[in-house]
Amino acid sequence: MALVAGTAQPQWIARRRGPAPQAGKEAHYASVAGTGLRLPAGSALAESEWLAVAGVDLTSGRGDALIRAAAPLDEQTTLELAGAWLAEEQRTVWEGGRLRTERLRRLGAITLTTTPGPPPGPAQVADAVVARVRADGTDAGLAVLPWDEEALGLRARLALLHEHLGEPWPDMSDAALAERAEEWLAPAVASLAGQAGGSGGPGRPGESASSGSGGRRFSLERLDVAQALRALLPWPQAARLDELAPERLEVPSGSQVRVDYTAVVGGAAGAAGSVGSAGSAEAGRAGRPVLAVRVQECFGWAATPRIVEGRVTVLLHLLSPARRPVAVTDDLASFWEQGYPQVRAEMRGRYPKHAWPQDPWNAPATRGTGRRR
Questions:
Q1: How would you write the pLDDT of the chain (373 residues) with one tens digit per residue?
Q2: Which of 123, 153, 188, 358 has its CA 20 to 30 A from that of 294?
Q3: CA–CA dist 30, 64 (Å, integer)
């Protein structure tokens, strides 16, 4: 019966999952075709690792289909009967945050053997990182990449341009970056893996993996995410990035102050309702670029800075000499008239060495201390 059934339907040849069951327990099998099967509790066939299945009940409603008729097989006969289903493959897998390769010998959906493979090459490393970025769950997604301040800032600047100017400025959402990962992430990872000796396995940020005998070590932590993202910059518009969304803005004191764009992608631009806050109702909303600067550096500044061809008003976080926020505004003119008198009254006693003029419109902006007036 085994030879007849196995020859007629080799896809129904099945291998037991795990050891023989204890008395009174069902035995569960996996077929060459991938279907889960089970033997009734107490079946003498459960002692056989391999079965040629001749009949199943697919309507049993209990998960694995119930085997109604089968005969035992040995592995050698199994491979002869289902030889057309034999295949070998190599795959990359994550294990404890490390990437490795393994060779699998399979009979259809049944894995016969698994052996270690050679260290993954640059293309395999890149494919594995892209797959990990696209995966769901913990320890997956874009969070596995080593996002530093530069990368977060560039992503936020591009997100702002995409929001207000549209194409060809790239979409910086998680979904869009994952979808286009072959364009920007894969080449950067492959290049880094190649520098590490042509093979290796990336771990979580901070981890490293061997790149093979005598080779250097590869670590995903060394990936320059900002440089990778620049592969998505449109040409020739890319030349206008610093003009449209500058990294720094000059304030009246002459200082070049860095603009914080991170709220554009993921968070509130700042806490509204600080002491002396003034401006429009939008002043504390999320998604605004922020310029944090001391009040003394802004004296005489009437026009709140605007970027992205004048479409976006920068949210100002005006700071005390100790660099603590005393006001949040996107309307400087309103602040000088309405909010500043309260700030001056509260701050001049705390910081008497700094300038707190009654007329901020005409006072010189200063980076350091100034005589109290």
A1: 778 777 888 999 999 999 999 888 999 999 999 999 999 999 999 999 999 999 988 876 678 999 999 999 999 999 999 999 999 998 888 776 678 889 999 999 999 999 998 888 899 899 999 999 998 877 789 999 999 999 999 999 999 999 999 999 999 999 999 999 999 999 999 999 888 764 444 444 434 444 443 344 567 889 999 999 999 999 998 999 999 999 999 999 999 999 999 888 754 323 223 333 334 333 333 478 999 999 999 999 999 999 999 999 999 999 999 999 999 999 999 999 999 999 999 999 999 999 999 999 999 999 876 554 4
A2: 153
A3: 9
Residue type, 85: W
How far apart CA 245 and CA 147 sit, in angstroms, is 20
pTM of the model as a whole: 0.71
Q: Which residue has the tokens 């995410």?
A: 225
* Beta strand extents in the chain (DSSP E only): 13-16, 27-31, 36-39, 50-57, 65-73, 86-95, 98-107, 110-116, 209-210, 217-218, 248-250, 256-260, 290-294, 306-307, 312-313, 315-319, 325-329
The whole-angstrom separation of Cα 133 and Cα 179 is 10
**Where does residue 341 fall: left (phi above 0), alpha (psi -120 to 50 degrees), or beta otherwise?**
alpha
User: Domains of the chain: which residue ranges?
Assistant: 1-84, 124-195+219-241, 246-350
